[in-house]
TrEMBL record:
Name the record gives this protein: aldehyde dehydrogenase (NAD(+))
GO molecular function: aldehyde dehydrogenase (NAD+) activity
Listed SUPFAM superfamilies: ALDH-like
PROSITE patterns the record matches: ALDEHYDE_DEHYDR_GLU (PS00687)
Record organism: Streptomyces venezuelae
Length: 509
C-alpha cells in the first residue's frame, strides 16, 4: 500500500499561528498542556494550563457576571450573540483551519462545523425575543396564573474533540441568550480552537459593551472538569463525551442537586428496506459511516439490510469504500482524514479483533495506511464488517470508522435489532414504503432522539433539538425548546381582586 503524503508539522504550526493571529489570540505558552495535530501526530505548541486556583477564580468571576447579566434584557443579550455570529462569519476560514489542524476534519466538514456555529447564533438571537412563558386559566375569579422563565446561573460546558467548536457554540449561544454565564472546559486535544472561540466571544463582548466574564475558558485536564462537576455554583453541567464520562458526571452533579445535560455515546443504525433507492442509500450510508473518519457521535455504526438487497448493497458499499480518498485533510480531494490518536487506532483494532473472533467477516478496510513522513499519524481504511449477531462489541460504541452489517427478514425483526443496543442517539431508514417509514418514526419504531427517513444518521441541522435516549444521556441541545434546560421556571399566582379565595375551595377563617 502506498504511503500518504502529508504536510510538514512546521507548515501546520505556521498555519495555526497565522489563523490565531488573525483572530487575535495571544497563545499562552507554557508546559501544562500541548497542542497537537493528528495530521502528522506531532506537537505544535506547549500551553499554560488552568489549575485549581484558576478554575476557582473563573467561577467567582462568572458568578459575579451572572448577577448583572440575568437582569440585562434578553434582546440586549441577543446583541452579544449577534456580534459573535458576525465575527464567526468574518473568521470562518481561520476557525476551519484550526479545526482541521487539531481535529483532523476535512475542509468541507470543518467549514460545516463553523457554519453550524453561525446558525446557532442566528437561532439564539431569535430566541432572545422568544423566551415565552404561558399564562394558565385560574380556577379562581380575579386571579391569573403565569409561568415565568428566569436565567439559571453559571453553565459549565464540557466538550469533546470531535466537534470542538460547534458543541461549545450550541451551549454558549443559547445559555447567553437565556441570561446565563458560561465556564468552558474543552477537550485537552483541541486547545487552539478553544482559545480562538474564547477570543472571538471576548471581542464581541468588548464591541457591544458587555463584561468579558460572561464567558471563561479553562484549558485544563480532567481535574478541572471535576471541579466544575462538583461545584454548587455551577447550576447546569452540559457535558458531551463518552457514556463512561457521563456515568461519572451525572450522579456527581445529581448528588449536589445540580442539573446536568448529557450528550453521550451513540450506536446509530440505518435500516435499508427492499424498496429503498439504493443510489441514495449508498451515498447517505457512506457519508454517515466514514465522515469525520467515523468520529461523530452520530456516525452510522450499524447497517440493518433486508435479505433481498443486502448482497447488492454490500457490494456497492465495498466498491465505494475501495475508492475513498484517505489522507491530508487540507487536500480538497480527501474525504477521510486521520484518527485523532493512537488510542483510537488501538480501540479500532481491538474491536475488529474481537468481532473476527466472534465470527465476523471484514469485507473492506480495517488496515492502517503507512505514513512514512509522520510515523505517529494514524490513517485507516474505514471498515465494513459482516456480522451474524449483535454481540457486545457490536452493541458498544467504538469511536472509529467500523460499519457492522446485519440482515433481516421482517420489519419487526429490523426494529428489534435496531433498538437492541444500550444507546439511543440517531437512527434512519431508507425505504419508499410509506407505512414502513411512518412505523419507524412512530412510538413502536426507533427509540432514538433523532429518527430520519431517506437520509443518514449524521449531519443534523440547527433548529431541531439534538440529543438521545438511554445511555446517550437524555439531553437536548441547540434547537426547538432545548433552551428551557438553561433556565428555571417560576409559577406565579396573581390575585387582582380584593378577596382572598383559596384553591381547591378550601375555606379558612
Ligand atoms: C457530535 O458528534 O458530538 O449531527 C455532534 C451531526 C452534527 C453534530 C454532531 N451536527 O452529525
Amino acid at each position: 500500500m502506498t504511503g500518504i503524503a502529508l504536510p510538514a508539522t512546521d507548515e501546520l504550526r505556521a498555519r495555526a499561528r497565522s489563523a490565531l493571529d488573525r483572530v487575535g489570540v495571544a497563545v499562552p505558552e507554557g508546559n501544562g498542556l500541548r497542542a497537537r495535530t493528528p495530521i502528522t501526530g506531532e506537537d505544535l505548541f506547549g500551553l499554560a494550563a488552568t489549575g485549581t486556583a484558576g478554575t476557582e477564580e473563573a467561577l467567582v468571576a462568572a458568578r459575579a457576571a451572572f448577577l448583572d447579566w440575568r437582569t440585562t434584557p434578553a434582546p440586549r443579550r441577543g446583541d452579544l450573540v449577534r456580534r459573535l455570529g458576525d465575527l464567526l462569519r468574518d473568521h470562518k476560514d481561520d476557525l476551519a483551519d484550526l479545526i482541521t489542524i487539531e481535529a483532523g476534519k476535512i475542509r468541507s466538514e470543518a467549514l460545516g462545523e463553523v457554519q453550524e456555529m453561525i446558525d446557532i447564533c442566528d437561532f439564539a438571537v431569535g430566541l432572545s425575543r422568544q423566551l415565552y412563558g404561558r399564562t394558565i386559566a385560574s380556577e379562581r375569579p380575579g386571579h391569573r396564573l403565569a409561568e415565568t422563565w428566569h436565567p439559571l446561573g453559571v453553565v459549565g460546558v464540557i466538550s469533546a474533540f470531535n466537534f470542538p467548536a460547534a458543541v461549545w457554540s450550541w451551549n454558549t449561544a443559547v445559555a447567553l441568550a437565556c441570561g446565563d454565564t458560561v465556564v468552558w472546559k474543552p477537550s485537552e486535544l483541541t486547545p487552539l480552537i478553544s482559545l480562538a472561540c474564547d477570543r472571538l466571544l471576548a471581542r464581541a463582548a468588548d464591541d457591544v459593551g458587555v463584561p468579558r466574564d460572561v464567558h471563561r475558558l479553562l484549558l485544563g485536564d480532567r481535574a478541572v472538569g471535576e471541579q466544575l462537576v462538583d461545584d454548587p455554583r455551577v447550576a447546569l453541567v452540559s457535558a458531551t463525551g463518552s457514556t463512561r464520562m457521563g456515568r461519572e458526571v451525572g450522579p456527581r452533579v445529581a448528588a449536589r442537586f445540580g442539573r446536568s445535560l448529557l450528550e453521550l455515546g451513540g450506536n446509530n443504525a440505518a435500516v435499508v428496506a427492499p424498496s429503498a433507492d439504493l443510489d441514495l442509500a449508498v451515498q447517505g450510508i457512506v457519508f454517515a459511516a466514514v465522515g469525520t473518519a467515523g468520529q461523530r457521535c452520530t456516525t452510522l455504526r450499524r447497517l440493518i439490510a433486508h435479505h433481498d438487497i443486502a448482497e447488492t448493497l454490500v457490494g456497492r458499499l465495498t466498491a465505494a469504500y475501495g475508492k475513498l480518498p484517505i489522507g491530508d485533510p487540507f487536500d480538497r480531494t480527501t474525504l477521510v482524514g486521520p484518527l485523532i490518536s493512537a488510542r483510537a487506532l488501538a480501540e479500532m483494532r481491538g474491536a475488529l479483533d474481537r468481532v473476527r473472533g466472534e465470527g465476523g467477516e471484514v469485507l473492506a478496510g480495517g488496515a492502517r495506511r503507512p505514513t512514512p513522513s509522520a510515523p505517529d499519524a494514524v490513517y485507516v481504511d474505514p471498515a465494513v464488517v459482516r456480522v451474524e449477531r449483535q454481540t457486545d462489541v457490536v452493541r458498544g460504541e467504538t469511536f472509529a470508522p467500523i460499519l457492522y452489517v446485519m440482515t433481516y427478514d421482517t420489519f419487526d425483526e429490523a426494529i428489534a435489532l435496531h433498538n437492541d443496543v444500550p444507546q439511543g442517539l440517531s437512527s434512519s431508514i431508507f425505504t419508499r414504503d410509506q407505512q414502513e417509514a411512518e412505523r419507524f418514526l412512530s412510538a413502536e419504531g426507533s427509540d432514538c432522539g433523532i429518527a430520519n427517513v431517506n437520509i443518514g444518521t449524521s449531519g443534523a441541522e440547527i433548529g431541531g433539538a439534538f440529543g438521545g435516549e438511554k445511555e446517550t444521556g437524555g439531553g437536548r441541545e441547540s434547537g426547538s425548546d432545548a433552551w428551557r434546560a438553561y433556565m428555571r421556571s417560576a409559577t406565579n399566582t396573581i390575585n387582582y381582586s380584593s378577596r382572598l379565595s383559596l384553591a381547591q375551595n378550601v375555606s379558612f377563617l
